[in-house]
Each structure stands twice: as structure tokens, then as C-alpha cells.
Amino acid sequence: MVNRLSKSDIRKLKKLCRSGSAAACTDLGILFREGPDSGVEHDVPRAASLFASACADGDGRGCAQHGALQLAGQHGVTRDGPGGLLNIKKGCEMGDSDGCFLYGRLLYAGRVSANGKKEPDRAAQYFLHACSLQPSPCADACAVVGSMFWERCADAESSDDLNCMNAAKCLGRGCEHGSSDACEQVREIYPAVGSACAAGEEDACKLKAAFKAAMQAVID
Length: 220
Prior knowledge:
Layout: H1 7-18, H2 22-34, H3 44-56, H4 60-72, H5 81-93, H6 97-109, H7 120-132, H8 139-154, H9 161-176, H10 180-198, H11 202-214, H12 216-219
């Protein structure tokens, strides 16, 4: 969902797009995809055209958005599974964190492999990349990959300092950038870690410090 823009702001956005701003074309495409609530009519084919143009002009968001519409193949947009996957991946490679998160989800669901094989390890790499991108990481990706790291941290067979520290870093980053799920996970994990530290577990104390450094505002 996007905020409704005024007619004046929409005119400015259209002018910027016509002037060659790929980012403005992507923003305009999102408005047309969302429809009346955003301030313009619902026109998904027009949105797809704007995304394709923005992608061709180097905007990673446009590539990922176009790919998502191609995968869905709805509201007048021709379905193109292979093309959609390529554009989403291209968007990620061009620095769009949402594109990386979406491609990771597709890998996790087995929608990238020709035989439908799920690829959680590759998905985790894309989630981590989406969480690490600056200046706008994907908060949802941080929550997902942070949870994956935490599962490995809590598993006696796979637990190690790196998994635990990455869990703290990713969940903290996700919370900082607006993921309520990541914040909730921090609030659930931190007291247990604190109790273990108080009981004299050195590794738990290290993890407690990592969580505190990652998300001071949530745990104080």
C-alpha cells in the first residue's frame, strides 16, 4: 500500500519520468499498480510498461517490480515466468533489497529450480544480502534470515558463535528498520539469553552483548 499523492505531486512525478528519471517512472508505476487509493486510476499494464522502461534505464526497483507482475500474470499483464524470475534477480543484482527478498522467497518455495526443488541455503544468501544492503535494507528479509540464524544458534548440533552473532545482528537490523516480527523475536530471545548469562554461561553473555549492541532501544 502506498500513500495517496496529490494531483500536483502526481504531475511532478509524471514530468520527472518523462524527463528521464528511472526512479520516478518506478514510483509512478507503483501508483498505477495500486490504483485509486494512490491518486491515479488502476492500470496494471501501464504500470508494467513503466517498470520495464525504468528497468531498461538502470533502476533495480523497476526490474524487480516488473518481474513480480510478469510472474503473477494478472490484470492484463501477460504471464512470463522465466522473464519474471530474470527481472527479479536482475533487480536484486542492481541493489534492490525487496527484489533480493522476493528472489529468496521464490528459491525457498522451489519456484526457481526447473524441478521445483526448494533451495533454503541459496534463499538464505539472498535474504542476508537483502538485509545487508545500504541504505535501505529489507526489514522483512532481516527478520526471516535472523530467525534462520537463531534456529541454527539454538540447535546444539549446528550452534556456533557466528550463527548466534548473525542472529542478533539481523534481527536487530530488521527491528531498527521497521519489522515488527524482528522486534518481537528480539523481545522473546533477549530475556532467555540474559538469564543464561546470569547463570554464568560465557557464550550467552557474548550473545547478550551482541543483541544489546544491535537493538538498544528495544531491549532497554
